[in-house]
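Narrative of activities, Objective 1.

The group set out to show that a structural description can be obtained from nothing but a protein's sequence at a throughput compatible with the screening campaign. Below is one input-output pair from the validation batch, recorded exactly as produced.
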Amino acid sequence: MKENLDKNLLKLINNKTSGSSELLTLLHDHIKQERKNFELFPSLIIELQKKFTSFQNINSYLDEFYNEIKNKGNLEKFFYKYDEILINVYDNIFLKAKNELLKYSNFITISNSKTVYEILKRIKKEKSKITVFVSESRPKFEGRILARKLAEEKINVYLITEAMLSNHVKNSDAALIGADIILKNGNVVNKVGSSILAILCKFYKVPFFVVAHKSKFSSKNTFDRKEMHSTEIWRNPHLNIEVPNYYFEEIDKKLIKKIFTS
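Output recorded for this entry:
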């Protein structure tokens, strides 16, 4: 990438605790501010796509932005379009989901999804009291970030480990997760642990919902599952111990009651 790539963009690339919707908002704001660099060095966009291969919405955004530059399109119109999308997306998803989600008061989720956070905030405004069980999501523990944000909204929150999911699924009314990719076959890609949560929900007959913007839809039936550094899980294991570390996994569509999108 460009040698003098600024610290803000590097920080964004190395952000492993924010969900894809929040990362897209941060990236969009950065590109708007630094648009001249991207116009002069369109190769930066291609390099960014390599960094964000697990996030369908970011790749779609970068594809569209690259085409605008290549075809000398109206960048102001492009930026305005995404300003509107990013401002209104959560209200639009909630409008489609509220009739179903307002039936429930006790939710369970995993990781740190901006969309889940925004939807739960809106549920809280409609209901006097809700409870949310948040799985902490190893190895980066980003569930703690979501738990803290929900607590600041005066939502009753329990932070749990993935090992405690079974105990709390049976005390939940519904599960609510975001999505990094919605594959063409209907399966959803999300943070590791989401599939266990979905299987437990199926066993305990708890509805499992996904909330995501339509930019998460992919034309592919598979995703590139990247292995991350094992040291994030265990820094000094015995030499004969393998420590696989994957951030994302696929959730079978048969386990999902409904995907709410906009």
